[in-house]
Every structure is written in structure tokens, then in C-alpha cells.
Design brief:
The protein contains no helices and 7 strands. With about 110 residues, the chain is mainly β. β3 and β4 form a beta hairpin. It is elongated and about 40 Å long. The N and C termini lie far apart (about 70 Å).
């Protein structure tokens, strides 16, 4: 049995890489899923957000939009053409809808 190789990455909606998915995003993000199987190939990607309904695509890539304030988890499993299903993979995505405010004391030139 071949175990699919899965990479999961989180991106801002404008395509910029979310440097630290655990640290928090300030806008909805796209989670790009790419799967590969060197044996029989990828038949289908199954994905879900926060334990919700399962979506799937008959392809080796998928994009999931995650929105709403708070901590989210994207789950992924992959089915290969030989009928093998991968273990579950997860990606944490935290979204903060209120931008951080930086405050400090003014600097005076003398």
C-alpha cells in the first residue's frame, strides 16, 4: 500500500503565504492541499473545516477557504487509485478579525 504524500499550506486571500498559521491571520485564508502518490496516483482528496461536512475533489489538489474569527482546523484524507486511504492530516488556522494595535511612547529629538 502506498501512503499519499500530502502538503498543506495556508495563504491569505491575496495569495501571500501565511507565515505562521498558528499565529493568526487577519483575513479569511485559503488552505491549499496538494497530494501525491508515487504508486497508483491520487483518486480523491477529502477535506473538512472544524469537523464540519466533508467536501471532496477528484484531483490531486484542492483549495479550502477558512473564514470567521477564532481557531479553526482543516482536516484532510486522500484516497489513491488502488483504494488506499491516508491517515488524517490537519492544519491549524487562527483568524483574528480585529487588527492588532501597536501603542507606544513618542520619540523626541533633542
Amino acid at each position: 500500500a502506498n501512503t499519499p504524500v500530502i502538503s498543506v499550506g495556508a495563504y491569505y486571500s491575496d495569495g501571500k503565504v501565511l507565515q505562521d498559521a498558528i499565529g493568526g491571520a487577519t483575513s479569511p485564508v485559503s488552505v491549499n492541499i496538494a497530494a501525491g502518490d508515487t504508486g497508483s496516483g491520487v483518486r480523491r482528496i477529502f477535506y473538512w473545516v472544524d469537523g464540519g461536512p466533508v467536501g471532496s475533489v477528484a484531483a490531486s489538489t484542492a483549495t479550502v477557504i477558512v473564514s470567521g474569527a477564532g481557531a479553526h482546523t482543516v482536516g484532510v484524507r486522500v484516497l489513491d487509485n488502488a483504494g488506499n486511504i491516508s491517515p488524517q492530516y490537519t492544519q491549524a488556522v487562527n483568524i483574528h478579525l480585529t487588527p492588532s494595535v501597536l501603542t507606544g511612547k513618542g520619540v523626541t529629538n533633542h
